[in-house]
Amino acid sequence: MVEQKNSYSYEDLLACAHGKLFGEGNARLPLPPMLMIDRIVKIVADGGKYGKGEIEAELDIKPNLWFFPCHFENDPIMPGCLGLDGMWQLIGFFLGWTKAPGRGRALSVGEVKFSNMVTPTAQKITYKIDIKKLLLRKFGIAIADGTMFIDGKPAYECKDMRVGVFPDGLAPAAA
Fold first, then answer.
1. Helix count and strand count (H, E) for the chain
2. What pLDDT shows up at residue 171?
3. Would residue 131 count as lying in a domain?
4. What local confidence, expressed as pLDDT, does residue 174 receive?
5. pLDDT (tens digit per residue) in 13-44
6. Gene Ontology terms, cellular component aspect (predicted)?
7. Per the structure, how many domains does the chain have?
8. Does any domain span residue 3?
């Protein structure tokens, strides 16, 4: 496990995806193309709207991203579920960053509101995650609110996103 930092490069995120950041059997990010983050620009344990943690991250939009040609032909937009997944990825990363042991699993989301779409002409997605509650017992669970911005304008708002990390044998059956 490497030293806890307050920002992470793309190379760091790939190390996490390969199990080298938080240790084997612990939280991992997915590999590209499912990795929906290029860098984490800020991660702190005591910031954010609720004072329990905050994450800010970015994804550079390139017109040749894998999902544009297939979603939809002649009307390319990023699937909304990928933006939501990017936020879940960050919450799972936060749990690994807090040294909570186990493999990460998205558990639920309370509310999702889409107000804008990511098109190939966009430049950058910015994610802002505010941790509301952090439970660290035999397993870890984080509950957070998140906003995804497209070129600085709010696009997706999520409330009560839940992600857990579970040591082997403790993961919920549906995960």
1. 2, 7
2. 64
3. yes
4. 53
5. 999 999 999 999 999 999 999 999 999 999 99
6. cytoplasm
7. 1
8. no
pTM of structure = 0.95
Query: What percent helix, strand, coil does the chain show, rounded to 5?
Result: 15, 35, 50
Give the integer Cα–Cα distance in Å for 130 and 143. 9
Residue 175 lies in a domain: no
Of the candidates 51, 163, 31, 162, which has an alpha carbon nearest to the alpha carbon of residue 96?
163
- pLDDT recorded at residue 168: 82
- Does the residue 146 lie in any domain? yes
- At 175 the pLDDT is 46
Domain region containing 160: 10-166
Q: Which CATH number characterizes residue 51's domain? A: 3.10.129.10
**Catalytic residue, candidates 71, 99, 124, 159:** 71
- Annotated catalytic residue 18: no
- Hey, what are 22's tokens? 């938080």
Rounded percentage of the chain residues whose pLDDT exceeds 90: 91
What is the reported pLDDT for 75? 96
DSSP 73-133: TTS----HHHHHHHHHHHHHHHHHHTT--SEEEEEE-SEEEE-----TT--EEEEEEEEEE
